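Notebook entry, structure prediction.
Reason for the run: the old model in the group folder had no record of what sequence produced it. Starting over properly, with the input documented here first.
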Amino acid sequence: MTSFHTIDTIPELLLQTLGTLGFSHMTEIQEKAINPILEGKDILAQSKTGSGKTLAFGLPCVMQTNTSNYKPQIIIITPTRELADQIAVELRRVAAYKANLKILTLYGGVPLRAQAESLAKGAHILIGTPGRIQDHLAKETLVLDTIKTLVLDEADRMLDMGFYDEIVKIGSNMPRNKQTLLFSATFPEKIEKLAKALLKQPLTIKVDTVQEETKIEELVYEIEHKEKALNTIIQSYKPDSLLVFCNTKVEVISLTDKLYKQGHSVIDIHGDLDQRERNESVIAFSNGSKRIMVATDVASRGLDIKDIGLVVNYDIPFDQEVYTHRIGRTGRANATGRAITLFTPKDAQKCAYVLQKAKKSELKALRVDPKFKMQNQYDTLCLNGGKKTKLRAGDIIGTFCKEIGIENNLIGKINITDTKSYVALHHTAIDKVFKALKKVKIKKKKYIAWIL
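New structure, fully documented this time:
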């Protein structure tokens, strides 16, 4: 693996930031893409999620941004709000070395007017979904004539969602000499068509184009009753975290309710939740205060959570590309994972593509522990303050440990957004902290607390 230090144009402060974040060596996609992007080439890259592609395009974008000019210079288009948020988080971490760089997200579920006001104040890097970007262009609250680089992330998913015309139209609002970077997990004909429409003599890069069999163990179980089969799998494999995919919102809500009544720590995510609810579902699952997430395919893209031990396809995915993205939620980066698909005899033809590559197993061969429940050791405490009130993780930890008297090892992951902070606390400590915060201040300021 090649070190980031081998790229001469990366400034020392950025190298220090990368080191602090734990990035010392480049992944394959980073090694192949970063230099050509810095040289101004258009890129057509095939790379699965979890390969490090966000940093592959994000690092050059941050480096090449001119912070003295507050007009948009980079625009990154993604299929989902979740992915837009995760890219924004990653880029803000990398951009910590560069003062005054402003990154703005544009997606639905948030008032258009609030985004328009932020746009009016200026931003360097925009990250958004096709529909909301189109809304701003239509209302003339967004002008793209200063864009230097267009990034299309998970382009195949955007085309699956029917956004071809929108993407081409958005691109037509930018300078013709812009750089275009297209990243896709698969290369169907639609991607080739989009590439011809937008890219100029692109460098084609293909990395991790096939799911590594050694990283993700793929299993299939032929079953009669899905709910019973899922319980058997939970009580046999005993995963630390479990992501279950259903095809419909109704099934997600129903299964979540059943798992909750069985004593499991579970949360759901689907398209009917508003943006705050979706964000909080992801936070609760990623910080361990919920151990099972039941999701529609809104979560098969853009859900970047480390250490998901097991993915279960409760319903068979609609097509092979969806399957690839679902199971790609486990075995991310250098980790290993396991993906299980359930199917009934009548579904055999529908999931033939899974049966061809996955190992067929039998439920009766599993050893079941009927007492096992996926219960959480942590709960999430919320505070009504975040980045805008200059609240930092160190401030929270200091107050909880020194002022309230909580052991440091009882504090889990801390997520801080613009207006809220979410703290995973061991269930033996959360009530003490919650009660204490009615009197105790953090950095001389009183915060309202509640349990998620």
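Summary: The first strand starts at residue 43 and ends at 47.
The old model has been moved to the deprecated folder.
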